[in-house]
Structures are given as C-alpha cells and as structure tokens.
Prior knowledge:
The chain is 39% helix and 16% strand. The chain has helices at residues 39-52, 71-74, 79-90, 125-142, 156-166, 187-193, 212-224, 239-245, 259-270, 277-291, 301-310, and strands at 12-19, 25-27, 35-38, 56-62, 95-99, 146-148, 173-180, 229-233, 253-257, 295-298. The structure holds ligand PBG. Ligand PBG binds next to helix 6. Residues 99, 101, 103, 111, 150-151, 186, 189-190, 202, 258-259 line the site of ligand PBG.
Amino acid sequence: MVRETSFSASQLILPLFVTHGRGVRRPISSLPGHFQLSVDQLIKEAGTLKRLGIPAVLLFGIPHRKDAVGSEAYAASGIVQQAVRALKDKMPELVVITDLCFCEYTDHGHCGVLRKNRGGSDVDNDATLNLIRKTAVVQAEAGADFVAPSGMMDGCVGAIREALDRNGREETGILGYSAKFASVFYGPFREAAGSTPKFGDRKTYQMDPANGREALREILEDVAQGADLVMVKPALAYLDVIARAKPLLGPPLVAYNVSGEYAMVKAAERAGWIENSGRAAFEILTSIRRAGADLIVTYHAIEVAEQLAREDWISS
Ligand code: PBG
C-alpha cells in the first residue's frame, strides 16, 4: 500500500533482432534467452508479448549484405521493412519502433558513412543525415509507429521530422536516443547484431560517460527538434542523468537497460553468485522507474512480465 514505485508490463519495450530466412531462431550466446529471429518467428514472439501485455518492440535488423553506405538499411526489401510489414499486418495494435542506425548495415561497423580521404573512424555527420532521412521514410512507409535513431548524429531528430513531414508521415513518431553514452555495456548487443566497429571506436559520436550536464543539453535539443520520446542509455550507470532529466521534460522519458546490463545479471545467476535473476531484474527495473523513467527498453521484459502476471513480485 505504501510502496512508492511500481511498474507494469505496459511500460516495457522488448528489443528484438530480425534476420532473413524462415524458421530461424539462432541463440545469441551473450544474451541468454534471446535469439536472432526470422520474420515468422518474430510473429510468434509478438503473440507472447500480446498475452503478457507488453505493448511495444524495438526492432534491429541483421541484413544479408553489408556495404560502406549501409544500403540494406533503406532498401524497400530490407529486413526491418519486411518485419514491420508482417508485424503490422498480423498485429496492428503492437507498437513497432524501428532502430535507425547503420552499424548493423555497414561493412566497417560504424554508425554512419565515413569521410573519404581521412579514413579512421571519422564519421561524416551530415552525409549520414541524408541516409537517415531516407531510412526514416522507408521505415515509416513500411508501417513503423516510431523510428529510433541510435547513431548519435547531431541534428538527426530535426532532419527526420522534416523528412517524415515532407513525405506525408506526420503521424510517425521519433524516439530520440538523446543521451547515449560511449559505453562498454553494449558488448553483447554488438555480438547479437554483428555491429562491432572494424577499427576505431564510437567516441567521436557517442557521449563521454563523465558528462551529465551535456546529457541534459542533448536531451533538451532533441525535444526542441521534435522528439516524441527521449532516451537515456545505458540505464544503470546513468540513473542520475535520468533523475536530473525527468523534471525538465514534457515528453516521456525512456531508459535503455542495455545488453551488458542484462548479460551481467544472467552471468552472475549462472555462476551461482546471485540467487534469482528474475528478482534481480525486478530490483533493477524498479530502480530505473524510481529514478524517473516512464518506459524501459529491456531484455528482461518477458521474464518480468511473466512474474507480474503471476503477481509473485508482491511478496518479493
Ligand atoms: C547501434 C546501437 C547499439 C545499441 C543500440 N543501438 C550499439 C552501439 O552503439 O554500439 C546497444 C544496445 C544494447 O547494448 O542493448 N548504434
């Protein structure tokens, strides 16, 4: 009765990895319980979400082909576009958020196109914005409810809003990855998505973990550019950023409880160092809500929603 913080399945968003083929359910070793799924398997998974009351998915694509400019990201037949069409056809009420980054699609593994001549990991921000515009429109046309630019290019929210509006997609929303830090906790994701940079790192576009005030500025800039939802990522090492951002915001605040945060819990459980990863997940998600997040993207979504459905958390 006096518990201050609660959450329900309706505040959870499940990340999913979609790949080509049929009947594919390829385990991701660093994310126990998660798989690269072909579209037919994805539909099955969506059925589970519906039963548990989880309203939304965040889709990442594993393309069959990579190149320097990530062209599979914006091909009409691209894997994410195929997945969105199938999901919206079978389950129109499911909120589909599409990741809009290029690192899964580029052969060098960076989140944008590289500057010619200079080499290294020097991503060309504005050339990448043009591809982001194109991808946003293609994803919206496939039926995405929100597009989620996770590449941390400056000005991407404004560029996307303008491109969507110009193409009659005023109703497609934008989830800004507003404060995304250059974090070591993305490791398992990069295995899952095959998106580890071949050289260099992402520090020229992702944020310095030391910068809290800069994070607030990034978030407010995304709001000013028209973001419908804003995000802090990762969650656990950045709960202070969530707590400081929340009172400044109109739009809902999303926290991304990232792959490394999930993998640590699972690894500790396997080693017998924590007794129950379900309870750990509850404690973690509660802390993220307590800090001020409205919605949480988490790989724990299904196990936690199953616990909620049994209500066994009340006595935990
Ligand atoms: C792509 C992207 C990453 C994640 C989401 N989108 C990886 C990265 O930036 O290297 C990480 C998600 C996770 O760890 O769960 N830029």
